[in-house]
């Protein structure tokens, strides 16, 4: 059996090597490395897939900042989001003088608990920022209802969920990131659609808003050397756009591979005491950017799997409200008990497009061995005492 990788980026590259190599060479031959037609072509093709306007940018963190700027959020404005997420979700808000207001997450889906949002809305609230974590989206139908009721913007952090669909009660479906006013995406290499470096994108259904976003991402420019607003320098370079354009053709195939691997994990890890597999929501599909378990003895399980040659990751060991940098928000241990429990119990298994059946079988067998071994030892200790 080949070495198990947590994310096999090189193995995936080999399946598209000729196309990717040629795409890179095309850019090199053109010598148009920044703001080329290759970027515009990728934006157009991704926009056609999503059904919205796409503005490429430097990374997912920049996408969030650009979204806040485009919506005109000002220092002191409050943005409701969750503390169980990557730091970029709130980092850019704080840098702009906005105040993150945290809501705990749902214990099954890891996403913002929509039942708690309304109580957190104040006169200063300007936006709701759901994070679609691990490839499954938040309950967007309820979030849209609240945003309409209170006149709030909805900014989707869809960096981990490209290709996921929100499923509405009337049966309609819509790609994650295109449901709210603005969607933000990351092309970090391990994402569902990953570049060979950093990259990101902002989505907007509204044409006028999309024009503002495009201007902000390019120094606030409306024409060459004419600046109509304060902007930033956040651009996807042409080589990354060329790579992403190739990989976009295989996105659906890659998502199916992730879903098949997840289905195998689901089937063979179900019913183990002390272990909880991902819970599907009826309002979302799942593209499994990560396959994340909840394990009562997480650290022991992680060490056991590591000794078996199985890499795992913890996303995320400490929620943001407990991080030193965000103590000024005046949250305390115990404020968000579900997020805090997640930090102690979540464990992500290998999840990528190149997992082989033998590898999946070995991973599952090793997890089961851990729990069987634990039960045997517990029984032995009980007999001795």
Which descriptors would you attach to this protein?
385 residues, alpha/beta, Aspartate Aminotransferase, domain 2, Aspartate Aminotransferase, domain 1, three-stranded antiparallel β-sheet, 13 helices, globular, disordered C terminus, PyrdxlP-dep_Trfase_major, aminotransferase, DegT/DnrJ/EryC1/StrS family aminotransferase, transferase, pyridoxal phosphate
CATH class of the largest domain: Alpha Beta
Q: Strand portion, in percent?
A: 5-15%
Structural class: alpha/beta
Rg, nearest Å: 22 Å
Shape, per Cα inertia axes: globular
Largest sheet: 7 strands, mixed
Low-confidence stretches: 375-385
Give the CATH H-level superfamily of the largest domain: Type I PLP-dependent aspartate aminotransferase-like (Major domain)
Mean pLDDT: 95
The helix-strand sequence is HHHEHEHEHEHEEEEEHEEHHEEHHEH
